[in-house]
Amino acid sequence: MSRTQRTGLGRGLGDLLASTEISEPAADSPRYETIPIADIVPNPRQPRREFDEDELAELSASLQELGLLQPIVVRPRKPDGYELVMGERRLRAATEAGWRSIPAIVRRTEDADMLRDALLENLHRAQLNPLEEAAAYEQLLQDFDCTQEELSARIKRSRPQISNTIRLLRLAPGVQRRVAAGVLSAGHARALLGLDDHEAQERLAARIVAENLTVRAAEELVALSAHAKTPRRPRPAREPDPRAREIADGLSERFDSRVKVEVGKNKGRIVIEFADDEDLRRILTIIESDQSLYR
User: Fold this and answer.
1) Which of 33, 55, 83, 88 is catalytic?
2) What is the rounded average pLDDT for all residues in the chain?
3) What predicted TM-score, i.e. pTM, was given to this entire model?
């Protein structure tokens, strides 16, 4: 690191880290070091795949002006060097700024924790697109060989959020690309999951973008497509019942899942969507335990 390069840690903290005496620290204790960037290899399990070049340029300029406010985290790599655990944006920006070394916390991290730590950092900084988040959840489920409920407890994310995000991996490839690029929101993407046919998903995704449709409008189009038939004569679309819409919205919020309420002349129906067997059991538990639903 050159003389003009600033770490941004502050004089008090920098002096503390440099001068604090600890008698015989444990070999595995985390430690602060300034290490050569050339000795660091990327985290192979980094869930984030896209990095905005403009944001990196802004961060690089900030590093040159203010220094690094938060050290990256690395782990020792055999036989030598280090492997990045958290802080890929900071490392990339420092490299772009021409730094040769960077402040880092060196700590031992198990292989199974590499993806989790990188995922949590990105989630807390809101930098993963929905598809990257879904792929990371899926990988964590495989790595930990656990249920979505157990994963929810580990990473402090709700189980329905994990389940609904993973479902995005079932979208057509073209729709996934639009979501990853930020052209379609996660809400639009979840609405498109109501269509089983990938070509139909692609067509409706293109229409959503072209007409700038809301999520609610996309859901209504999906509902119409899913129940469409080929009648001999076209029938005018019927306005949705306001009371049915109100009930559906209330149940959707209560079950944390999409609910459709349809009212006909002589009968109606309520459709509650669920992601898998575990999600179904969760909804049934709510129905059985919530007495307010029977009033």
Assistant:
1) 88
2) 76
3) 0.46
